[in-house]
Amino acid sequence: MARRRLAKKDIRALNATLEQFGVEFSKKDAVELVTMEAGTFTVVNGEPAFVSYDGLFFPHLKFLQTHTTNLPRLTVDMGAVPYVCDGADIMRPGVVAVDEGVVAGALVIVVDEQHGKPLAVCKALLDAAPLKEAVKGKVAENIHYVGDVFWKLTG
After folding, report:
1. Distance from the CA of 110 to the CA of which of 32, 63, 66, 145 falls in 20 to 30 A?
2. Mean of all residue pLDDT scores within the chain
């Protein structure tokens, strides 16, 4: 495991990347890059914030529990929760609400309908309108979920 604290100029460069998520870190934040076999984690003030893995860069679920981003959301019914938390892709019958900003190929946050808690970060397979009209099939590919390797590595 390699750990490196970012300088102020590196934080500025990182903020340019984070702009797509509507997130910005200040120069006062302690920002580190932690490289592990599973991927590279951006750690801010001791908490995991973002993950870089297999060419993808996405927010860590622990970060999403305490911070907001501009990523659109898919809301799933409570019956889908155990499957999503076990790494299953998101199927249309379990989706109860779709944000208008959902775009095919872009990241979405999957939340449960009862508490609105983030369960997964996924890649949408359909735009919002066709997704709302669909009645069956896979609508999002699960990338990071509660209980996966990224979750477990960060305690």
Report:
1. 32
2. 95
Predicted confidence (pLDDT) at residue 155 exceeds the cutoff of 80: no
- Would you say 71 and 35 are in contact if contact means Cβ atoms under 8 Å apart? no
Per-residue pLDDT of 121-146, as tens digits, reads 999 999 999 999 999 999 999 999 99
Q: Which domains does the chain have, with CATH numbers?
A: 2-66 (3.10.450.120), 73-153 (2.30.130.10)
- Give residue 88's identity as a one-letter amino acid code: A
Backbone angles phi, psi at 145, to 5 degrees: -140, 160
68 contacts: CB under 8 Å, gap ≥ 6: 22
Single-letter code of the amino acid located at 110:
V
Q: Which two tokens stand for residue 5?
A: 């604290």
- Are the C-beta atoms of residues 71 and 21 closer than 8 Å to each other? yes
